[in-house]
Amino acid sequence: SIDTLISSDKEKDPDVIPEDSSLLTLRIRKKALERREETIIVDRACRQETLAYEMESHAIGKRPDNPTDLVEEGELLLTLNIFYPVIFQKHKDHKPYQTVLVLGSQKLTELRDSISCVSDLQIGGEFSNQPDQAPEHISKDLYKSAFFYFEGIFYNDKRYPECRDLSRTIIEWSESHDRGYGNLQSVKMEDYTFNDLSLKIGFPYLFCHQGNCEHIVIITDIRLIHHDDCLDRNLYPLLVKKHWLCTRKCFVCKMYTARWVTNNDSLAPEDPCFFCDTCFRMLHYDAEGNKLGEFLAYPYVDPGIFN
Amino acid sequence: MSSVPGLQADCEELLGAFQDADTVRFERFAELWRERRFHAIFYGRIRALERNKLTKKTLELAQQYFLPPYAFQIRVGALYLLYGLYSTQLCQPKQKIRVALKDWPEITKFHRDLIDSQHYDAAYVFRTLRLARAFHFTAMPKLLNYRTKKKIQENEFKEEFKDPSNRVNTLITNDVLEELINIHDHYQKMKCVISADKSQPDKALSLIKDEFVITLKDITLEHQEWQQNRMKLFLNVKDTDEISSKKEERTLLESEGSERANALARIKYRSYSAVVEAPKSRRHRQVKLESSESGLNYGKSPSRSKRNDRRPQPARR
């Protein structure tokens, strides 16, 4: 049959490049490989690469246990890049982002729930005097409002009574003078699915939560669902790529992730200074739990917490 | 996306050899493939993540040759190439070929052409790819990637692969000619109806040439023949090694196309280089000549601007 015409006559090892190849690609690749062999001591996938590959391919081909959760044929699959809000100096050239796959029939609220941002976990308040009471309310529970901005329409999250319309300020601002923005509207996020939207690929849109934490959202690809994709509806929105952020370690032990940050601390060598929970208590409080020295302490959530 | 080094050269070499073979049979393509052992293009101890990316880029490059404006033979070659690359890739599960929504009607048309012209092996290859679920149906042809490119790489594909773009033919197609004939007949009938003699239109109403549709068809055919002859001459010139004959033929070719342009340029230069000198009262505003040889202002009159390439200095009194 036709297939046998192409496949190799002798079984060759795919790792070895044939010696007398006439292909330019292989010649170049061979040189690069030889260079790699000279310079790299251990040639093995580092854990970040393994993690990235796992993320990309862990859901391929999955089928649900419950047949009602099966994604149907003709469903659209969108690939979104959601950028981190951090503005470090080193991120000037390429901002770190996570890539999420969503189905066309999913609601915007499902995407909103799946976006994990470190600002959601922040705990407000100074807790130097009562360190044991710290983790009470995280910002995610306190400030539930959020909105998406697509093509001139703000989609506000109105599922809970505490949610406010964050986009109202912007709409009022644009209507106060003739600023050149067309009609900006505000609707509810939970009423819309991705199939209802008209979108541009590659155009930056906005997701805003916590009042001022803004993420840029870019749609990179829209395609039909394929037999080899993950067909379990419960797994969507599916995270396929994440940027690896280094976590800040405790200043004292350099082992555990920092959970506290102090300012104006007479006991600490720098301002601000990061501590893990154990080292923090050991340094700043005596055996009875009395506060030693003057300082301000805030609970700290590291951006690398989602690694 | 940075491209795979050397891949474009290899693909073009293979497709060029296929074009020279002057056939669309799959056996011929398979021979060429085996000669070059093309399946080894994925070899080289590449780890899984990198392999996925590489295969995606390879398929994307090969897929570009599959669409118009490439010549029919190149497109069939690209189809075979896609089939070969898809089957011999080492990724598990296999990377798919991206097909954009706007290209799908053209591809189906291509498939039907293949069946109509009885190239059953090519049609079978296409059908196999579809049955193997090798396609991703996407909105856009290229997957977006966000790295800042230092310079935007322009993919220069070989001119010879492209079908000579025959703009005249795309404008005056058979459908258009048919319609013109219909309208012309209708027009004649209307003229007959309103004139005194019902079988013939009035002499006063004959404003156009009656045979103009046929003349138009003849002219377009002539143009197409001329273009094909020119292409053949051009290709022959590239192959011959003799310097003297090459020079002659090349000058012949060049002058054929640009003869008119050169003549026009000469006339323009002569007429516009005689600059009228401004009278004494306006000495501070002498006329400056702007040369339109860059071709940008072709057809427009040279403007009296400060920028000038060549200006004969008017003698100041």
UniProtKB/TrEMBL annotation, chain A:
GO BP field: snRNA transcription by RNA polymerase II; snRNA transcription by RNA polymerase III
Recorded superkingdom: Eukaryota
Keyword Transmembrane helix carried by entry: no
Subcellular location: Nucleus
Any coiled-coil regions, as ranges: none
GO cellular component: nucleus; snRNA-activating protein complex
Keywords recorded for this protein, A-Z: DNA-binding, Nucleus, Transcription, Transcription regulation
UniProt cross-references to InterPro entries, sorted A to Z: snRNA-activating_su3 (IPR022042)
GO function term, MF aspect, one: bent DNA binding
Family membership noted in the UniProt record: Belongs to the SNAPC3/SRD2 family.
PANTHER family: SNRNA-ACTIVATING PROTEIN COMPLEX SUBUNIT 3 (PTHR13421)
Function: Part of the SNAPc complex required for the transcription of both RNA polymerase II and III small-nuclear RNA genes. Binds to the proximal sequence element (PSE), a non-TATA-box basal promoter element common to these 2 types of genes. Recruits TBP and BRF2 to the U6 snRNA TATA box.
Subunit structure: Part of the SNAPc complex composed of 5 subunits: SNAPC1, SNAPC2, SNAPC3, SNAPC4 and SNAPC5. SNAPC3 interacts with SNAPC1.
Protein's recorded name: snRNA-activating protein complex subunit 3
Lineage: Eukaryota, Metazoa, Chordata, Craniata, Vertebrata
TrEMBL record, chain B:
GO annotation, biological process: snRNA transcription by RNA polymerase II; snRNA transcription by RNA polymerase III
Position of the signal peptide: none
Example of a GO MF term: sequence-specific DNA binding
Extent of Basic residues compositional bias: 303-317
Cellular component GO terms held in the UniProt record: snRNA-activating protein complex
Region feature (Disordered): 280-317
Domain of life: Eukaryota
One Pfam family here: SNAPC1
Protein's name in the database: SNPC1 protein
Natural source organism: Nycticryphes semicollaris
Taxonomic placement: Eukaryota, Metazoa, Chordata, Craniata, Vertebrata
Gene: Snapc1
